[in-house]
Write the structure tokens for this entry.
Amino acid sequence: MEIALVGIGKIALDQHVPAIAASADWELAATVSRHGTVAGVEAFDDFDAMLTSRPDIRVVSLCLPPVPRFAYAAKALRAGRHVMLEKPPGATLSECHTLAALARDHRVSLYATWHSREAGKVAAAKAWLADRTIRRFRVTWKEDVRRWHPGQDW
């Protein structure tokens, strides 16, 4: 299935593009970005132009910062496109509820994910947890924002 990737930054190039390329189920058919491109893939710098000129692309993946993501997702859903959102799915809970309602109204899928679901240690952790019960847990966030989001101002 063809997919458009919107927002071609570090995470998209390091995570999303290789994952799409490695999948027999997906073909990266277009990108939308003010600055980034992927070699050999049709590139747009305007989201509306991509939606209008490529109605055959039924799925868009939004790799955008949280603040502009809502407007792009709403526009894609209204255009009848299935949408994948990178985490967090919205800047506010009300945005998430609005997007879910739009997806229902337009009979398309809305999917929120985190690019690290496919990270190498996830399968090992899942296997280790298979016959265990989690009674409590604590998360200590140790992401180095300067490594994963260099030059980002959001």
Summary: The two ends are 32 Å apart (CA to CA). The mean pLDDT is 90.
